[in-house]
Design goal:
The chain is mainly beta. The protein has seven helices and 30 strands. It has helices at residues 5-27, 69-74, 79-83, 147-150, 428-432, 472-475, 557-565; strands at residues 45-46, 54-55, 64-67, 90-93, 97-100, 109-113, 116-117, 138-143, 157-162, 169-179, 183-193, 197-208, 211-215, 218-222, 224-239, 242-263, 266-289, 292-309, 316-335, 338-352, 361-376, 379-390, 394-405, 413-424, 434-437, 444-447, 459-471, 482-508, 511-537, 541-556.
């Protein structure tokens, strides 16, 4: 098992240089601040729901915040494990570890890291195991279509992973952990920050040996894994009103051994090696003048992976994706009750490798605007709309309206309502892929629609949501032994048209051939219930409790219509009776 340690050491050197430069600059800062004895309970601030910092209890768009401290208490290792404990978030363990929101596949959830998109979707899934928890401060989740602000791939919702920023001088953390089978991990973090200048360096290493699990007569092998990550962030307030931020990230993993996959209910085991590598860089500038703010930035990302199978043909499969993003956003605080936002972005994506021999490129141009208002203390709203145009499918409009009502005070009862539309454009895989799998237990070929001369239309959705949040602490007066108790109920419905599904094309040269087409209309609807709170026990003990339940109903509307019309059903083979 081999990992490119020279690349990691080079990255560490760059990070150390960054740290030395930042420390030298920090030494020139006057960090003395006046002490105070006053304590304030500051409201929780979220950014994902409106692309602007907003108090969570006044945000019309419901944003669920998952703190990383929850993982420390539960002994969780990855972002996927942390999200698994959130109501309405369902894990899918297939080729990658992805999450399902609103009853929709992981391909419909946009995953962001500090507001920037993560690339490298395989089978429509961004593997959340690429993000170690050691440098995560919190995760913000918005369920339901957010195409009105984020465009393509946000039809089911948005997950924004946020990293910490030091603000109180020096801080450091060193964590070593070993788990049976999962292996050993090392997390190291060092940072320094004030209100004007901050820098943070983070490194991660993980190694696990191959092992095998035996259940009854079945044997499930797991390959060995070695991976590492480096991440650096720097923030500088050049002048009151001028802010600069730079981020850099590198990730690499090497997996070797036996890989087990299920095809048609049969377990297939193959041997080989799998490598992932990703790097990204981002820079952001912000200028604030009185009640207006102008910000923009550049983002570049490259993800690549390669498979080398130990077969007589020594087959190799590789894939590379590059993304460049240029964006700008203007915010105007009209007055204390109203805020106007407008912006745009340009994205250029390209893929290459054995799966994409034609090296396709997609360009997307987008513009969005939003109006937020709070005409009364008991009412606030957000109205947003976005237009996206790409080189592969044309243009699409995505409006959304969200409302928050607080009829009996800000904290006791919060009623949220939202209606909106979402869309998801055909991705590279559905349009351009040319992939053949001849491994044991598989034997199939996957061709993009354009390889067969077919065209795909974007998938569109209409969604509605109603949620009720009740602060039990204030309503039932649970204090002093009960803290932050809340009950939330959420009803949602989502209708998707032009659903893109794989279909069987035929058989050629001993291989089953599949492609994609717009086939169905589906609906997902359901109910979510959650309760959370803290009990203060004697001796400085605290008991934190969370419970959640989701009922989900997902149906194919075309199938239901065919059943109602009597054109679909089953036939009894003995009597020939159709029902």
């Amino acid at each position: 098992m081999h990992l490119d340690w020279r690349t990691l050491c080079c990255g560490w050197s760059l990070l150390l240089c960054w740290g030395c430069l930042s420390a030298a600059a920090l030494g020139a800062q006057n960090t003395a601040e006046a002490d105070t004895l006053r304590l304030y309970r500051t409201p929780e601030v979220v950014v994902t729901g409106s692309r602007n910092p907003t108090a969570a209890d006044k945000a019309p768009v419901r944003v669920e915040v998952v703190p990383a401290t929850r993982a420390d208490m539960a002994g969780q290792l990855t972002v996927a494990e942390l999200l698994e404990e959130s109501a309405g978030v369902v894990q899918q363990y297939r080729i990658r570890t992805g999450i399902q929101l609103m009853g929709l596949e992981p391909a419909y959830t946009l995953v962001l890291l500090n507001g920037q998109p993560l690339t490298g979707r395989v089978a429509g899934v961004v593997d959340l195991r690429r993000i170690p928890l050691g440098n995560v401060e919190r995760i913000e989740i918005v369920k339901g279509p957010m195409s009105s602000l984020y465009g393509n791939a946000a039809l089911g919702g948005v997950v924004n992973i946020l990293t910490p920023r030091p603000t109180n001088g020096w801080e450091g953390r060193l964590q070593v952990q070993h788990t049976t089978h999962t292996g050993s991990e090392l997390h190291a973090r060092l940072g320094y920050g004030t209100h004007r200048l901050a820098t943070l360096l983070y490194g991660f290493l993980h190694h696990s040996a191959p092992f095998e699990v035996t259940t009854d007569t079945a044997r499930f092998p797991y390959a060995g894994l070695t991976e590492g990550a480096l991440q650096a962030t720097a923030y500088w307030q050049l002048h009151p009103g001028w802010d600069l931020q730079a981020d850099g990230r590198f990730f690499q993993s090497q997996t070797r051994g036996a890989f087990a996959e299920s095809f048609g209910g049969q377990l297939a085991v193959n041997h080989g090696a799998f490598r992932q590598r990703e790097w990204s860089a981002a820079t952001t500038a912000s200028w604030t003048y009185r009640r207006a703010r102008l910000q923009g930035g550049l983002f570049a990302n490259q993800y690549e992976e390669s498979y080398s199978w130990d077969t007589p043909q020594s087959s190799t499969d590789d894939f590379r994706q590059r993304l460049g993003r240029l964006w700008i956003q203007y915010d105007l605080l009209w007055n204390i009750r109203y805020r106007f936002t407008a912006g745009g972005e340009l994205l250029v994506e390209e893929v290459s490798g054995s799966r994409y021999p034609e090296h396709p490129t997609v360009r997307t141009t987008a513009a969005f605007t939003q109006w937020e208002g709070m005409p009364y203390e008991w009412l606030s709203y957000a109205l947003s709309v976005r237009w996206d145009g790409t080189s592969t499918y044309g243009g699409a409009w995505s409006p959304k309206a969200s409302f928050l009502l607080r009829p009996w005070g800000e904290r006791i009862v919060q009623l949220r309502l939202s209606v909106g539309t979402g869309f998801r454009a055909p991705d590279f895989r559905q349009l351009f892929i040319r992939f053949t799998n001849r491994l044991q237990g598989a034997g199939y070929a996957l061709l993009g629609a354009r390889q067969l001369g077919l065209e795909l239309a974007p998938e569109y959705s209409r969604a509605a949501e109603v949620s009720l949040l009740v602060a039990l602490e204030d309503l039932l007066r649970l204090a002093p032994w009960g803290k932050e108790w809340a009950l939330e109920a959420r009803l949602f419905a989502n209708w998707v048209h032009n659903l893109i599904e794989p279909f069987y094309v035929g058989r050629q040269e001993g291989l089953d051939i599949y492609s994609y087409r717009n086939l169905a209309r589906i609906a997902t609807r359901g109910l979510e219930l959650s309760v959370r709170g803290t009990v203060e026990l004697p001796g400085r003990w605290r008991l934190q409790t969370r419970a959640g339940y989701q009922f989900l109903d997902a149906v194919d509307l075309d199938v239901l219509a065919a059943i109602a019309a009597g054109t679909a059903g089953t036939q009894d083979p003995s009597t020939g009776r159709f029902q």
